[in-house]
Records
---
Amino acid sequence: MIAEKKGLPSKGRYGANLLAQAVLFRYEYRIPYRKISNLFEQLYGCSISGAGVLRLCERMATTARSEYEDIQKQIQAADVLFADETPHLVDGSKSWLWVFTTGNRTFYAFRDSRGSEVLEEVLGDAFSGVIVCDGHRSYPAYHSWLQRCWTHLLRGTDDLSDDDTEAWSIYNRLFEIFEGLKSFLRTDPTPVQRIVVQTNAREELERLARTEVQSGDADDVLTMLENGIGHWLTFVVHPDVEPTNNRAEAILREPIAMRRIIRTLQNQKGMRLHETFFTLLKTWKHQGNNPYTELQRLARNV
């Protein structure tokens, strides 16, 4: 007869520490399954194959999924939500990894599409907050209260020719407007002052968008400006909204680094594992929780 120990997983040969470490090594430290297998052999004399490590992660994901879905419900109620997406190969075909973050919660979702139907599915049809985003058409197709990212608008200067005085004139004026708005907001203005400044700034942007130009680069930035004309200035009247989507872009860096290592996911199971553990690990870190301790907690319920 084998004695039962308190706090052990209800099934399987392996304890909570090993289950937690399998996920931590894979999704926090980006170690391939084969090398995790070698680590377990070296550290503990534990003979488990790379495929066996994968199965441990799958068992953990099944238990973790309810917390994943809870985080989705919480972001659906956000007042301000930062969103972005990046392509990711799954079985050689392009899918998209979406990210949604509030600052203390982050939710990742793999989907086959970059369209507005993903936003409808993830956020629901009653989302009422502000979405900070880039200029992809899926966002205005889903929601009307947006903040377009000024970094995307202004980054065209990175490759701009010094000789293109027409384009530089446009960009310099945009920089002036943007810096002026940020300076204004640092004065802690009243709501009425915010509305007045937003109205004046929109009129200025509309005038600028009507500028006739010959330069292709100047035309490109004016087209971007005009296409988002109703969404550049939400941050002026909403104190909790940032004018750039740098927060969501930064949160995509870890999955992008993982993508460079693994190249392509093999199937839907891989997508499910990635979105589940990326979500939980990032959210725990936002909230100041120790990911390993949290994974041990989950493992005891496997």
---
Amino acid sequence: MLAKRIICCLDVDRGRVVKCIKFLDPRDAGDPVELARRYNAEGVDELTFYDITASHEARSIMLEVAARTAEEVFIPFTVGGGIRTIDDFRAVLKTGADKVSINTAALKRPKMITAAAERFGSQCVVLSIDAKRRADAAADAPKWECYTNGGRVPTDVDVVEWAQRGEELGAGEIVLNSIDADGTMAGYDIQLCRAVADAVTIPVIASGGAGKPEHLHRALTEGHCEAALVASIAHYSAHPIAEIKSYLAERGVPIRPTAFPP
């Protein structure tokens, strides 16, 4: 059985890592490269950087942060935010990043997923989906809508249907961001995770709401996800990566150790 992954998510705004609640009210959490170095040492499996205002403000991608990170860490990392063209994909990968995440551009130009997968391989293409529950859906039959521009713009696109199409177009994995749960530390949206994970065959990564190790356990078991993103609990040292991994391993979740024996 493949090991489940723990991924630290660093939301970057103008060169600083910030943490929001439901995509709003950012508060400073530190320097992105310093945090990346710390998480690499602590044994996290991967890193993800999102420039959370690049698409909304039509700014260029954060190539400098990516290049500096590549010099400091030795684990896979993904960069997203402000990706608009295949040339942007190429520029990010040339910095040393392993994957590129797209959201807004993919919804506007779905064929970009296919073009990137054909050029660089599906393993490099991460489809990021910002999902919010639809208020008009029944409580026992929830539905979710895709949002773009950092969770600011509704699209009327169904999340599950878009995830399926993204896989068909060539995405290698999906990061599923719950706007409703983001930053609350009250747990992932397990219904959302399971709905998408059961609808596709590519890995789904739970994102939004992690507040304690139990939440990751639920996402990786009940939510059927292959990986879980953490932010607040790691940035503010509420639960170190080693503690989270130990909790999961003790409960039978296949997980990579934080350190390997000599």
